[in-house]
Amino acid sequence: MSTATNELTTAAASEAAASEAAAPAAGATHPPFTVAVTADAARPDGSSVHGDLGLQRLSDKGISWGVLPSYTDPVPLADLAGVHAVLSLGHIAFDSRTVDHAPDLRLIARFGAGYETIDLDACTRAGVVVTNTPDAIRRPLAVAGLTLLLALSHKLLAKDRLTRTSDWAQREHYRGAPLVGQTVGIVGFGSVGAELARLLAPLGMKVVGNNRSGRHAEAAELGVELLGLNELLERSDYVVLCAALTPATKKLINAEALARMRPSAYLINIGRGKLVDTDALRDALRDGRIAGAGLDVFEPEPLLPDDELLTFDNVVLSPHSLCWTEDFTRDVAAGAISSILAVAGGERPANVLNPEVFATAAFAAKQP
Q1: Sign of CA dihedral 188, 191, 196, 201
Q2: Per-residue pLDDT tens for 78-133?
Q3: CA distances from 325 to 51, 92, 136, 293, 332 (A)
Q4: Which of 15, 221, 256, 301 is catalytic?
Q5: Of the candidates 251, 246, 255, 306, which has an alpha carbon nearest to the alpha carbon of residue 273?
Q6: Res 7: pLDDT
Q7: How confident is the model at residue 368, as a pLDDT?
């Protein structure tokens, strides 16, 4: 792991060590708890593209932290030697080849909600707890979906271009679409979808949803009818993708699914780029078989400079960061750091993705 820790981290760790040395011996001592921050979104000093990660909270508890030396996927095993927890800022893979050979690793704290690159079964077998921060991301991601919907309905991108080119005479061709009475279909209706439904209610829009179970605790309360995917696609004026990426949902929106959508309908993706067959989406947009798209996620990321998606006037794009607001960073970072502090203190953290890990011999063997 990188030796680049800040002065506060070093001072706090030294102070904690001195305190332990002065205390009466009370059994075996253990090395200080050590955290590695992935380098995909963080700099050596701990600053990040998201803003303040709250690493000072670790320093204040005498916990040593450092940013990994490079953005390498998967993380080199040598960089995980002596590491007890990883704060994963992106989508680096953690599978059996990694976690089986990281004997000190007890926790992977995911900054955000998605965990498709983390093998939960492998982590459980290796005694590694995995957490994420679904509550913190709920409102910012729902607002991101609403932002794309409003931008599309009002043809904001085209109007921005007309204004910048002083081509006001063309504005009559870009009237906005109505909102009241329009149907929004949310694919992957869960906590984010429920939050989006709340935001849409004052606009007079009808919300329908789809998820794997066909039920959701808040659906009835919010007036959301849960449908099969095909019926949702056929009835919706706006289709919003919030689903998690799994083998079953990869390219869920393919040519057949797009053909079920209305020519006046828009596709919005705030989930994962791989939920959509991008080639099929390009074809549908080029042929006018759907009205447009709002995309915050892509396959691949980043888009190649010659990608046809960049040329469409009816497509609104964002570089997988539309939900990156100050409250997003504050709340997601707080949740991830709290998970680390809990495990460092011998407690069970919140939002554990593999709770069965606590019953394993591998987990017990890693406890001090």
Answers
A1: positive
A2: 999 999 999 999 999 999 999 999 999 999 999 999 999 999 999 999 999 999 99
A3: 9, 22, 11, 22, 11
A4: 301
A5: 251
A6: 34
A7: 87
Catalytic residue among 57, 260, 320, 330: 320
Cβ distance 1 to 68 under 8 Å? yes
What residue ranges of the chain have pLDDT lower than 50?
A: 1-29
Question: Which residues have a Cβ under 8 Å from the Cβ of 93 and sit 6 or more positions away?
Answer: 73, 74, 117, 118, 119
Task: Identify whether 301 is a catalytic site residue.
Answer: yes
Whole-number Å distance between alpha carbons of 219 and 210: 10
Q: What is the pLDDT of residue 30?
A: 62
Q: What Cα–Cα distance (Å) separates residue 175 from each residue in 164, 216, 263?
A: 18, 36, 17
Query: Residue 263: its pLDDT value, please?
Result: 97
Is 235 within 8 Å of 252 (Cβ atoms)?
A: no
- Which residue among 91, 139, 235, 272 is the active-site one? 272
Check if 256 is active-site: no
Is 272 one of the catalytic residues?
yes
Nearest to 251 by CA among 222, 221, 276: 276
Q: Are 247 and 272 contacting, i.e. CB atoms less than 8 angstroms apart?
A: no
Q: How far is CA 162 from the centre of its chain?
A: 34
Separation of alpha carbons 273 and 318, rounded Å: 12
